Fold each of these.
Amino acid sequence: MKSNLKWLTTSLLLIAVSCTPSGKRLSTKYPIITKIKQDKSSPFYVDFQHYPTNRKALPVGVFDSGTGGLTVLEAILNYDQHNNVTHKPGADGIPDFKSEYFEYLADDANMPYGRYDAEGKADFLRELVIKDVRFILGNTYFLSPRDTIPQTDKKPVKAIVIACNTATAFGLETVRKATREWGLNMNILGIIEAGVKETLRQMKGKKGVIGILATEGTCASNGYPRTIKKLLPQFPEAGKVFVIQQPGIGLAGAIDGDQNYIDPQAKSLRSSANYKGPSVGNPKYPIDLASIRQYNFDTTGNQLLVKKDKNGKWIQIQLNSVSNYIKYMATNMTIKMTKNYPGETLNEVILGCTHYPYYTKQIRAQFLYLKTLNKKYDKVIPEDISFIDPAKSLAGELYNYLYKNKLWASSNNRNSRFFISVPNPDLKQNKIDKQGRFLYSYKYGRKMNQSLQYVKIVPFSTKCIKESVRERIEEDVPSAWQLIQWQ
């Protein structure tokens, strides 16, 4: 087992998730925690003194930085590993959570979460996660962005699932401590530990590399490598393992239509103020012109924005499709893999962002394309390369929690509800573009501890979610789609 841990001992950069001085309460660093509990005049206030103690009939709360977390909810809705009457192991053809209902939050206005750490805003991100949990626990929301008086009929919850990998990596321990300061006994489940457990089970009798495809922030947090190190001793049958991470620069944003990463109307290169994705010469996210064949970018339409010199040679490139962001990510991981771990096999790849399972087929296709290019890639990429969706394992952990704590609902006679955050049009400080989104510089330039209601949270509606995103939801997460009541 010492050999299993050697690579982590020498390479892992440990990060303190909640850096408060010893002996001080978390609310000293994050005053919003105190406002949520004590300030009745604050829009963030929650009356924890009267929070329900009998919680069987309450919904389960799920939140993510966007609609990508619906893949996690889909896994929960389709989970069938037990008999629904006896709760004994063994599928019975009836979804295990059939009697439950849910409240889902997509913090779309503030996404992508993966950029905050890179912009020096890790603590602001943790404050956002605290506010996400506050919403899930509270009873208020708005019917529309322009409403000034909140509705108060939202249900509290009996458990919380953080679907977002970045929010889990940076905020899980923070919000667990916050709920203790609120005097609330509330279980909060994060997706990273669930994904790691499933991956290590799959590594039984194998040796090789575990790949992590995740957001920039999740990779920077070292949440997955740190958790692998922690849990590896519990899986003695796993062979010697190594870990490699590849941030999906801009991929989550592109999937959700963030124009900082993708613009369907663009016909030529965009300015650096408007485009934040990879490009030739980008010091953080470079596109290597020598690797064009490996990338295999799709050049049809405007999916790839290219500038050529007078001889027709490419000198600049910008990505402008989800497909090309996927090709960039998978190719960079493969190049890094062959350089860092020659002779090893990329056995398991964790899809460490809730948006990525939507595109498992495309991710697999790029890896298998690379496998055909040369002997070096052929050796490291197996034909049956395995992709781990942590959501399925997380569903199992939620099941076990409800069962052990006798929190199963007797019947489902209530509707699940779906909410999304939008920039608050009534806050004068907010800087919002023509598409109704925060300007990039403003979004990542905001300061914490401002007690400002930057966003309003409203029900899912056709006005707040693009048609292309709705079509993806209907096609890829049909069980969740059936529960959504569009406004």
Amino acid sequence: MKKRKNITVVGAGYVGMSLSVLLSQSNDVIVHDIDEEKIKKINSGMSTVQDLFMENFLKDKELSLRATLKKKEAYKDADFIIIATPTDFDEAKQKFNTNVVESVVEDILMLNKNCLIIIKSTIPIGHTDYLRKKFSTEKIIFSPEFLREGQSLMDNLKPTRIVIGGDCEKSKSFGKILSEASEFNSIKPIFTSSSDAEAIKLFSNTYLAMRVAFFNEIDSFAIANKLNPMNIINGVSLDPRIGQGYNNPSFGYGGYCLPKDTKQLLANFKDTPQALIEATIVSNSIRKNFIAEEIIARNVKTVGFYRLIMKKGSDNFRTSAITSIINRLKETGLEPIVFEPLLDHQEDFNNFELVEDLDKFKERSELIVANRISGDLLDVESKLFTRDIFEEN
């Protein structure tokens, strides 16, 4: 019988919650977070993020999972401690704000010098090496996550790859734990240097952002030249070298990862010639301006935005392309209205006027803008503006 490991996960967002559930199938997992509501949810067998599969998994599976606000309880007996705290991009400093990650590492080493620290938070290339030197330890590695919002547990159960940025003996054990926890337990972890692993994360997300931007530019061209974007995209995507994924037009990429990761990769390129990375970021901004102009050209007084989330199954508004477009419209004097059932009060989000009743929202809106089509809007198709050609996320 395999010996269960004591694993602590710091941070109860998408990454932390999905890893906690995944690993608690065969190990004893403690989640540490500073948010009391998240702690209560986990200890009540609930998910802290919107993920239907995860919610059902928590109900149906026997898991060894609990949560605590106390650092000592979380850190002192852990064999492995995973850091999954958010890292926002600091525009002024042109790099990720890693203060929380560094603070957590410092706290861990004060209470437990024997555990392996695994950073899952996205960080600049070379930052794990910097932390090892700063704290005089080799027991810090980086292991990137590749998750979709709303499907984070599924992506951990069926990973496309497991990347371990570190070559100490304990890092091999951690790779084995991740492999055994997945449904593809024959998947072999890829072991690299920590800097290579950090680069894999940033280049992966930047490629996805570039692909989104490319198909959005096809759509913009089609609109401007009165062409059929579906025909063009289908024809392009049938080439197996290009493929079908991530080809559905949108208002622009947004969410937790792509905006900040593209900017961080560009910052890492400061001494290296490049054009594509910067062009991807610029293209996304141009796309949002283009969409805003298309909405303004409809010449209506009341524009209604159906949902601030970018796609179905998400509860994230962070750096959403939709909010950027609303702000662009407000600059022209328009006062859009918003239907977003995940928000309770107008003051919760950027002072947008929230209309809580869907029927009233539809009635008041002369034009309804939706990044993704929903069954809720089938009765108002005549005043719907969307670029959701294939009706998929």
Amino acid sequence: MAQAARGRPRTAARVAAVQALFQSEQAQVGAETVIDEFIRHRLGELPGTGGFEDGRVPDAHAPLFARIVRTATQQQDAIDRMIVEALTADWPLARLDPVLRALLRAGAAELTMGDGPPAKVVINEYLDVAHGFFEGDESRLANGVLDRLARQMRPAEF
């Protein structure tokens, strides 16, 4: 996935946000802790390296990354309710792969940002991110859920 984000700072920020939200949930640490760790240790390129080793995301736009992670965690209860409503009854939120759950939270968080890119751009960006993490049906599920959320949250754009 990381190579696909090379030269695309906003896409790289979304990749890093998904990784950070996953890490935050798995380690049960708060948003500010994980944001600080990523900014200090995972964003930016180490001198003399190719940039993507050890989970680094060298080109990530740090302000967008931090905003997505903060929004997703601060609004997680509301975002999770919307995701649950967009999922089918046989796919509860807890059943989702934790990376997919982090991706949906990040995408939903970005859709709440009225000053962000158009909804279709957000959906396409997270679909690209999903393709980097998954080879199966997860990308289709992410596309469907984010499309439903976007139509609910930004109906004027459809």
